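User: Quick sanity check before I run a bigger batch. Here is a single chain. Can you write out its predicted 3D structure?
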Amino acid sequence: MSDLISALSEAGLEPVTDVDILAAHSQDHADLVEAGRAAALVRAASTEAVSAAVRIAAEFGAPVVAQGARTGLAGSATAVDGAVLLDLSGMDRILAIDPVDRLAVCQPGVLNAAISAAAAEHGLRYSPDPGSWRISTIGGNIATGAGGMCCVKYGTTPEYVLGLEVVLASGEVMRCGRRTAKGVAGYDLVRLFCGSEGTLGIITEATLKLSPVPAERLTLAAVFGTTADAGRAVTAIMASGAQPSLLELIDNTHLRALEALRPMGLPTEAAALLLVGADADPDGELAAIERLCEAAGASEVHRATDATEADALLESRRSAYHAMERLGTVLVDDVAVPRSRLADALDGVQAAARRHGVVIGVIAHAGDGNLHPNIIVHPEDPASLAAGRAAFDEILEMALAMGGTITGEHGVGMLKRDWLARELDPVNLAVQRRIKDALDPLGILNPGKVLAG
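Assistant: Done. Predicted structure follows.
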């Protein structure tokens, strides 16, 4: 261990070994994932520094855990024993905004919202918008394949990554992808690194696709007496051919928690609220969607009168996780099911909550069939923790039985690595292991994450 620290110091990387600082950097937002004891923290300022740190770690066989803002919810950025924690948050420069080619070149520590702020000067934006967009980094978004609220129309993070600079497990620096609007030369290595959670390489630069800012956007909120009715409304909206820019579901537990956190007159007696946005022909689109919501059983439909009111509703939705934290420790599930099974999945989550006697609130990117059942547990109470974990597992089992997936956007990390083998067929899993072995033969990049064993 001391030789590793000495080597990092001699390379000018200024490793931090203070126990309290290491502890503060050892956990992401997956509170129930146990962190290991890291050996050192290196605050990287350049690709060269990342490369040097990885080379030294490889020489000593030390694990390397890349970190950004540590806002992840699956334990992907959680420390493991003996690890070099590689903090990339200081690599936070936007290197270029190109309005002609409609792209941005960024270091991994750039905050998601900062990209759109810079692009807005050219009438452009970076479309993927996870709930944590103001505090999460683009490197972490890419590493976890992050989603967001506009994905129902605009797609997820991997669809906007044109090129990457990646430091491999050997310390070698590789570029993949392109800056052009089209290009199919060679294997699509960019997609390979998107969602790999730092297990195949460490992203040090990203070239991202930008899109025009919509000329107008409006939002409506539809109130439902049952979550099943809200689910049926989502099915009807998507079946109609409508193209909402936002289609979110907020259940009663979240409505009450959000109103307690920041009062704004949310309907706390409702079973569910659908938040629907449109940005092509907002008035026409929302009028049609309003009729579909009413036909599905909405008791009330409120139309935002302008973008300011629409933004207020959206900001409230972004606070859902923090509102639930006031109730206890949040064990976040992140399943996706076929849209046609959304109502069944909502009923299944409620049944799991009753069966195990736990509080579960559901927030959902409903237009994608992506549910976030937020399970409230009290870790100091073993019975509460066991009940929460049992409900968590039951929800994962339900999603797979419906033809869904164990994670729609948060990643596998440590939280769900034992479940990956249940979703993938044996050949698929074997191929993934071979890819990991080929790119990281020593197994030093974020070990213990994604693939179990």
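The first strand starts at residue 40 and ends at 43.

User: Great, the batch can go ahead then.
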